[in-house]
Amino acid sequence: MSDVLISAEQLHHWLQEQPTPVVLDCRARLGDLEAGARLWREGHVPASRHLDLDRDLASSPGVRGRHPLPEPGDFAATLRRLGVEPGRPVVVYDDLGGQLAAARAWWMLAQWAGHPDVRVLDGGLPAWREAGGTLVEGEQTEATASDWAPAFDDDTWVEADEVFSSRALKLDARSRERFRGENEPVDALAGHIPGARCRPSADNLNENGRFKSPEALREAFPEASDVISYCGSGVTACHNILAHAVAGLPLPRLYVGSWSEWIRDPARPIATGD
């Protein structure tokens, strides 16, 4: 098991120890801002707390895309409120194999904020249930706040101008249909950044929703010394970064604004097809 992943069985064991890890439920549904909190109330891993994609892991949508990063001070305040600190491991999960918000939370905590031990629950909530894990219902109570002041590393992500000028390999985590411009269910324009290669985040998982082996992932990713990962709005792109970590490969930088920002400037080129 990679040191960025945790199995449901290992999480169950950790929850019996002291201090327990901080467990963050990152479930979300695009287009339904209340879905994550509602799903958490209906049933969640014991001791977990809800971490909201749109309110905690992003700032308001606009010219910088649909899920721009929050201000560092705001995200630091969120982490303190949830009791996150470097001395306690953090486990994040969703119900889509990490593809939607858990990987984004991992990237923001481990790569941007620099927390030393953040794991993604491999297989997410379905894996927890399959392993016999129980769910609890109810409202969220206040956590014991921490005093952590993260040192954010802005070298882990890039702006649109750098994407435009960079010779780095651009990996697009969206579906092949969206990449080719055949179908665009979310953004106003279809296509991809010229020169990019398509690597759908779903390809990182096997048929049971767990990550493929490090060996399989290493074979699948193209060889490149400099990689920029993007998607529609900088969320599923983090899954490709996480997959690089599972594979033991150098980590790509994240283009946070991604396609939803790229298309806002008509001067930026658009490609279609393969």
Automatic annotation (TrEMBL):
<dbReference type="GO" id="GO:0004792">
    <property type="term" value="F:thiosulfate-cyanide sulfurtransferase activity"/>
</dbReference>
<dbReference type="InterPro" id="IPR001763">
    <property type="entry name" value="Rhodanese-like_dom"/>
</dbReference>
<keyword id="KW-0677">Repeat</keyword>
<dbReference type="InterPro" id="IPR036873">
    <property type="entry name" value="Rhodanese-like_dom_sf"/>
</dbReference>
<dbReference type="Pfam" id="PF00581">
    <property type="entry name" value="Rhodanese"/>
</dbReference>
<feature type="domain" description="Rhodanese">
    <location>
        <begin position="164"/>
        <end position="271"/>
    </location>
</feature>
<keyword id="KW-0808">Transferase</keyword>
<protein>
    <submittedName>
        <fullName>Sulfurtransferase</fullName>
    </submittedName>
</protein>
<dbReference type="InterPro" id="IPR045078">
    <property type="entry name" value="TST/MPST-like"/>
</dbReference>
<feature type="domain" description="Rhodanese">
    <location>
        <begin position="17"/>
        <end position="137"/>
    </location>
</feature>
